[in-house]
Every structure is written in structure tokens, then in C-alpha cells.
Design brief:
This protein has helices spanning 2-14, 31-45, 56-64, 78-85, 115-120, 135-150, 154-161, 180-186, 197-205, 234-245, 247-255, and strands at residues 22-27, 49-54, 71-74, 93-104, 126-129, 163-166, 192-196, 211-214, 222-229. By secondary structure, it is of the alpha/beta class. The chain folds into two domains: 2-97 and 224-255, D-Maltodextrin-Binding Protein, domain 2 (3-Layer(aba) Sandwich), CATH 3.40.190; 99-219, D-Maltodextrin-Binding Protein, domain 2. Strand 1, helix 2 and strand 2 form a beta-alpha-beta unit.
Length: 264
């Protein structure tokens, strides 16, 4: 908490006299939560938040190519740390956390106990995000590596059969108004998916019926989300970053299933 207080102090100093609009690029898994945070921030501050959501790795590449962005909220720490290392941001702060879960069509009969068996089954189309472009894919590959200690040969088998359906530069566009995982289930492209636990919560909010199972202890995988204020409109950007870190911002993230920044 001391580290957070120091960061908040720096942001507060930068946030004086903010007045312009601010541009936010954020991980796709944050779309519902940070949209609500941004709307609440605008109501309180009058600062309009222009926002775009997508795979963190692809967003980071766009920032590196010069797209004008003020705040970048990634589903991992690596992509924002790369921007900070390039001198595009002064520091990185972990602002929330998530976990990975498995989800499937109800008829798959997925449970925590049979999760690895179902994932390895030739009859099950296993969907994932794309490693390298999207942290969800990177986290999933770590889960596959952990599976090797549970069942020899599992890591290679899972990586070979996994269908990298979302999060890549050439991934199919999901129609507006649809969550990626429910869409892949509805179109028959996947029977089971490894994704963030918050994805399952969001799907339930859309009225989509699917089974969400926690990973068994030996496969459990957490996700740390990092945020950077970029070297542009730092006053407005720092105001938004402070709001995300505030009690109100963290409460909204928690409502959507994310972990509060002081949780670990």
C-alpha cells in the first residue's frame, strides 16, 4: 500500500489543471469494467475518455508506432513495462488482477475435476487466445506447461490441438454486441475455452448459458494487470489513472470480478 500511495502522490502532482479529453487503450477483458469506470470518471471530472479495447500486445504495438494514447491498461505487466523501458512512460503500476478459468458449453459436462481430461479429448474443440499478441494466450500456455507435471505429454498435446481463435492480428472479428467466447461457442468453432474468469462472468451477464470451472490447484494461473500513463496529456491521464486506482474505481472493477489492486 505504501507503493500505491507513492504512485498516487506522483499522479496527483501531474493531475493539476486537467481539462482536455483523454485517450485510453485497454485490454479487451477490461471493456465492460473500464467503460463503467470511464463513464463514472467523466461524470465527476468532466473529462471525456475516448477508449479502445483489444489484445494488449497489439495495442502496445500501435502505441509504439505513434498512435496518440494517454493511458494504457494491459492484461499483463510485460507490455506496459516494455513501453516504460522505451521511455514512453515513467513507471508501471499493477492496478488489478484476474484469474484463468475454463468454460464450456453445458453439454460438455465440464468440472474442475475433469478439466484436463476434457481439454485433451480429441472430441473437444479447445479454444484459446493467441500467445504473443494477447496475454490471455500467454497465460494459457503457462497452464499447458503446468499440465505436463500432471500428465506427461499433456503440454505438447494441448499446444498442438489448441485453436487460437481470438486475440491475434488475423483473428476473426467478433460482431458487435457479442462476447468472443459465447460467439465461438454459438458458431461451433469451440466447445471449450481457456480464458479469464471474468469472461465467464460477462457471458452470464449477456444471458449466455455456459459452464465455468475453476482450474485445479496444480494448473491455477493468476493474471496481473499493469497500467501506464504515457508521455502525452499527463494531467488528464493522471486524473484518470488516479480514478482507476481510487476506492470507487476499484469497487467497479471488483463488481466485474476483478481483484482489487491491494489484494495481493
Amino acid at each position: 500500500m505504501i507503493r500505491l500511495a507513492l504512485v498516487a502522490g506522483v499522479l496527483l502532482a501531474l493531475a493539476q489543471s486537467a481539462s482536455a479529453d483523454v485517450t485510453l487503450y485497454a485490454a479487451g477483458s477490461l471493456k465492460s469494467a473500464l467503460s463503467e469506470v470511464a463513464d463514472a470518471f467523466t461524470r465527476q471530472s468532466g473529462v471525456v475518455v475516448k477508449r479502445e479495447f483489444g489484445p494488449s500486445g497489439l495495442l502496445r504495438e500501435r502505441i509504439e508506432k505513434g498512435e496518440p494514447v494517454d493511458v494504457f491498461a494491459s492484461a499483463d505487466m510485460n507490455h506496459p513495462q516494455k513501453l516504460a523501458g522505451e521511455g514512453k512512460a515513467p513507471f508501471v503500476i499493477r492496478f488489478t488482477g484476474n484469474r484463468l478459468c475454463a468454460m464450456a458449453k453445458p453439454e460438455v459436462g465440464l468440472t474442475t475435476a475433469n478439466l484436463l481430461e476434457k481439454a485433451l479429448s480429441p472430441a473437444i474443440k479447445l479454444g484459446t487466445s493467441t500467445p504473443g499478441s494477447d496475454p490471455s494466450g500467454d497465460y494459457t500456455w503457462k497452464i499447458f506447461d503446468k499440465a505436463e507435471s500432471v500428465q506427461p505429454g499433456a503440454a505438447k498435446a494441448l499446444k498442438t490441438k489448441a485453436l487460437q481463435l481470438v486475440g491475434g492480428p488475423n483473428s476473426e472479428l467478433v460482431p458487435a454486441g457479442h462476447g468472443a467466447v459465447p460467439y465461438m461457442f454459438a458458431t461451433g468453432k469451440a466447445d471449450m475455452f481457456i480464458a479469464y474468469c471474468t469472461t465467464g462472468k460477462a457471458a452470464a451477464g449477456e444471458g449466455v448459458s455456459l459452464t465455468v470451472a475453476n482450474l485445479p490447484e496444480k494448473l491455477a494461473q493468476s493474471a496481473d494487470y499493469g497500467l501506464v500513463v504515457l508521455n502525452r496529456n499527463q494531467a488528464e491521464a493522471s486524473q484518470l489513472a488516479l480514478f482507476i486506482l481510487s476506492e470507487q474505481g476499484q469497487a467497479i472493477l471488483a463488481k466485474w470480478g476483478f481483484e482489487a489492486s491491494g489484494g495481493r
